[in-house]
Amino acid sequence: MSSISTQKASPSSSSTPQWKYDVFLSFRGEDTRNSFTDHLYVALRQKGTITFRDEEKLERGKSISPELLKAIEESRFVIVILSKNYATSTWCLDELVKIIECMKKMKTTVFPIFYDVDPSNVRKQTSSFAQAFSKHEECFKDFIENVNTWRAALREVANLKGWHLLDRSEAQLIQNIVGELWHKLSYPFLEDIEDLVGIKSRVKELESCLATEFNDVRIIGVWGMGGIGKTTLARVVFDMVSKKFEGCCFLLNVREVCEKDGLIPLQQLLIRKILNECMRIQDVEEGLFVIKNRLRHKRILLVLDDVNHLDQLKKLVGKGNWFGSGNRVIITTRDKHLLRLLKVDEIYEAIGLNDDEALHLLSLKVFTNDHPPKDYLELCKDVIQYTKGLPLAIEILGSFLFSRDIDQWKSTLNRLKEFPKSEILQVLKISFDGLDEVEKEIFLHIACFFNNGIKNDIVEKLDYLSLYPDVGLGVLVDKSLVKMDETKLWMHDLLQEMGRNIVYQECPKEPGKRSKLWLLEDVDDVLTKNMEIEAIQGIVLKLSTPKEAHWNLWNPESFSKKQHLKLLIINHVYLLHDPKHLPNSLRILD
Fold this sequence. Notes:
590 residues, alpha/beta, Rossmann fold, Helicase, Ruva Protein, domain 3, 5 domains, five-stranded parallel beta sheet, 26 helices, 17 strands, elongated, disordered N terminus
């Protein structure tokens, strides 16, 4: 089960840095500038990384420039090449102090390379490092605190995970370094996994499903409603295990790409990512042939994100046996039936955040803190109650509520009850749009009338309405639009709002021109006008307390004019007159 958000859990005092450089190189010019550092710099640039290397040769006594300090702050990764004479340069040592400072304050990632030096010599300042510090202590005896700061910086960098040249080939070491950095740059989620709300347990569960230690072929489906966090979860797991495979590809937004451009761009991207070849595919069948025959001997990790048709799966992965042994395919979808048709090995259900996680995420989004201020706590709980653990909804509402005062919060919450946020509804409506007309009617009946009801009663009513619930409800369950157990049937509150909003939009200003009515004021308005209104198919009014006073306005002939009315359920309403006639179309009366 899964639900996650991309919001970080422990934000710094400032906003997340916008890196200008991918990599900053710190090195001792006289040791490695024209050899190892130059080769590494060229390899990084060829791979496409934006790498900063100071080209200025230090003049004795010159202090480190502000431009260089700024470049360190603007670099996401720093590589410190620790060579024999590194510590002889106060420039390098000042640079290192700044690097360690950025590592602690800005989450800059630092990697040491021990170039023909032993890490213990760096850590303990022995051998050539001892000689260098002997001179520093003599030259800077009046500034001994600076010397101690340099020593501390060297100890810290020596304790970091990095690379050791030893007797290895420089070319091989550079290839390994570039590959490692490129992987981290390509898959940034790995840098933030500790900070993602609700991620750890979900990642562990999905990674367990993959079972990468075995050499079989395995396809895993990640299934859940829109906005629940399927893509983010798949992305994090993809980043974590991708190094175990010969080829990796994450095909994002398969549904959207196919609707816009068809399958060919996805086939071309898959081939390019796995084979590192730019191949022009003429048609889908050619792409299918290339994927099946050129990729069959590779151990591949593939993610197909947001799949909504079986044909997409057939033309991209076949039955999963097109690739080499040990390959893994992750499919994210809102439609469980697709996963069954493909006969996936396991279906992993994504569910919402629990209340604690939801409150944590909302607090981060609105207050950039792990917990809300006390005077906002109850309002935050109201938001959590409204969103029911849906990360997408929490993030959208959190962004909207950011920097707003308590009165604005209250106004927003009141407005949401009548006018849900359109950004949330648009995402949820994608699943609804994929239904046929009968399935849409079942969904709308549940959203407007029957949510959180007794399963058998609802099935019976839908059957009376000729909506074939035995088939249709199964489709809605598979598409994550409703849930059922042995006795109860329900849907997420936001899905209910989405369904009711669809009916409301049939005619926002005139409730009599909508197909379904469930609000007291709308029903009262329509039934007092005694007009022939063709649109209304269902009226369900379930009041918690009896209403009497204003119902004397009802005209007893009103019901006879509703020629398409099939469903009429009115509880706790006392009519002064029984209706004279009921329409022949009526199937359910209660």
